[in-house]
Predict the structure.
Amino acid sequence: MNKTSLIIRREYLTRVRKRSFIIMTILGPLLMAAIMIVPIYVSQLSGEEKKIAVLDETGLFYHRFTDTENMKFSHVYGALDTEKAQFRAQEYYALLYVPKTELSVPNGAFLYSDKQPNINVKTYIQDVMKKEIETLKLQASGIDQDILESVKTKVSLVTIKLDDGGKEEKSYTELSMVIGLFSGILIYFFIFLFGSQVMRGVIEEKTNRIVEVIVSSVKPFQLMLGKIIGIALVGLTQFGLWVILTFGIVTAFQSAYADKIDAAKAKEMLMKQAAPMGTQAADTQEAVTEDNGVGEVFAAIQSVNFLLIIGSFLFFFLGGYLLYAALFAAIGAAVDNEADTQQFMLPVTVPLILAIVMGQFVINNPEGPASFWFSIIPFTSPIIMMIRIPFGVPLTDLILSMALLVLGFLATTWFAAKIYRTGILMYGKKVDYKELWKWIRY
């Protein structure tokens, strides 16, 4: 065991000192933090003011286009050709032309610009015209707009979980979907990333003949196990640093821009409070709407059992990695170069890809028989069980999945060790599945 610990230490220190490890440890948190920070930062920036000329031959949209923070509308009354020639000279961003048609209301318009129009501009213009045309059509049909608006109803469906003791607890399906898919994809990514490092490390040592010196002092199984555990510790170290650094960057950003973020939230809440409150139904609707706002987001986050999620993630990440890393090590020992690994990689990677594909079906029916079986089979359980856990998994299913994953790791390590001890010292021979079966039977 002392020799195995020396190999673990060598693998760990060798890899954490590499420039690639340091670069990825720094870039990873920056990229993850940017995903959360950039949208918030961009939303705080006021875009360039865009002046838009409106040539409305119908006269139906006069003063319907109200100015916004980034868009200013001006009506023009000349001929189309004249206005098209002059809108550049007058520094307009675009010219909106609403032609007069034989119909009572127009069904389209033209937006002229010397550049590709902004999607926000197009959406705003379409929404304004759509609402006005719908209002005109309702008036022509003799339907009161106020009556139609009063008929529109928003339904709030609150999901509540009942446990065996009758205790009620709010559940949030959308949040469970996000957490489950994110955790499953993260495990899939890490298994491939660090598993391939094991395989490449074995191939490199075998090609350089370093392994011949190493196995003269340690057993092949000790070498394989030390390499797998050492790289696992590297993965955990990098993942831990990513979490800590990402949290630190996001926290620093929130502290620096706390005033702007809080002001935006306050404005949102004031807009909700300004809703009409004429009847009891309106009061109820407003309460539901407000409950679905910022407060509901915090309530959803607080409902997550982060201790269970993080603990399960670490277990299934380690279990899945150890299971597949043993197979990756066996593949590395069986070949002489990375190009020869393709024939053996397919059966190893198919279960992982299948688990990702099945993720959508598991989300739709996390308690179904397919979800159950895929979550306890060791080759797919690291991903599928992490997708199921946020939805609530019976304790028996979780214990069974963990136990089978441990047994699966021991079984694959035993088989991989038989291939590893023979293949690690074999050079210049093309190995096939028949040859691998002979090595396992030795």
Residues 220-256 form the longest helix (37 residues). Strands lie at 50-56, 71-75, 94-98, 110-112, 159-162, 168-171. DSSP finds 17 helices and six strands in the chain. Confidence is low (pLDDT under 50) at residues 262-294.
